[in-house]
Write a structure and sequence with these properties.
452 residues, globular, 35% helix, alpha+beta, single chain
Length: 452
Amino acid sequence: MYKKILIANRGEIAVRIIRACREMGILTVAVCSTADRESLHSQLADECICIGPARSRDSYLNMEAIISAAILSGAQAVHPGFGFLSENPKFARMCSQCGIDFIGPSAEIIEKMGNKSEARSMMDNAGVPVIPGTKEAFTSADRAFEQSAKIGYPLMIKASAGGGGKGMRIVRSADEFEELFNLAQQETIREFGDDNMYLEKYMDSARHVEVQILADKYGNTVHLGERDCSIQRRHQKMIEETPAPFLNEETRFKMGEAAVNAAKAAGYYSAGTVEFLVDDDNNFYFMEMNTRIQVEHPVTEMVTGIDLIKAMIRISAGESINVSQENIRPRGCAIECRVSAEDPNRGFIPCAGRITDFYIPGGNGIRVDSSLFYGCEISPFYDSMLAKVIVHGSNRDEAIGKMRSALGEFVIEGIDTNLDFQYELIGSREFAAGDSKAVNEIIEKVQIGKRV
């Protein structure tokens, strides 16, 4: 097992990884920007190394600085968390070349699954149901347009190297295809340095469901159930839960089986998620595979009792999975709400500032993952997510009640947050009914300034 791990991230996920390492008796090295010198992850780690100025490109995306910090500190491995360099094959390869373990899959696997069009083709060959769309990627709007008629409208233009809702546009008619293709491609180049795009059939009422998998380096692969991630704002998830309230048991079983087959087809190891779209008839289609830990991983931990961060570390260190599929029996219901520094009354505009009052909720089955503390500074340079509130109940109604209680207790003063808005969503008739489309319509109305 490793003696020291460097965490190439910040915020709540860096704190989460540091705590897991502490429980395993592993020393930790934090990296920070100049804006994060006093942050919680910088203070909790055994060591902290400043790697650059506030902007991400100069610090948390600075591969050379992070590798240098790992070598300088004597860290044997790097955990990338999510976002930043977590799905960057170049970074994973650099770690390997410098004799440092990258806690995640190999650079080759990240490369294969990171190219969305290549991943779709691989899944199609493996017999995993795939959303109708193009098998090849396009750099030209004219060539892509030629294929659009075969798919039919509405369709989705997506970035081959994309993720996090970037480089995506819904096209509802041929007249708007070229303009939206160019906009999506420009965003893709800006965000990912890649101009390859592909097309998918847009499934308007489909649910977004992902299956958590664990796989070791010896071919053992299991799934830990699904998460419903359908409630989103601009393709960014807001509320996640498990089990998905609308899935029947037959579909649930088939999706788990398909996710395991997808991971095996890719030669995958580590924690990862296979993402699907599910239509009103419970037909499901492969969308993409995320080769990292997900923001919403705690809901799976709550119902299975499996610590996914520790599992990633053990798999990276060469240990085999010590649990079989038949012994994985998720219990109850878990829900996660993302608390962000943004003002719903002003179109969810991000906010920055100092926390002047702060209280974290507690109680049986309530967990808060955060890096906040009284007096801390919320920087304008990074993602606006402040905390994740996760609850576990014996059933969905109990979990909803716990989440309402937890959100009602949570106090964050000094900046604007979406706490009250999340409280309203969780307490709505639409959420109680499991109608994610109706919940998303509420979010959309608020986003464009029509408060409901």
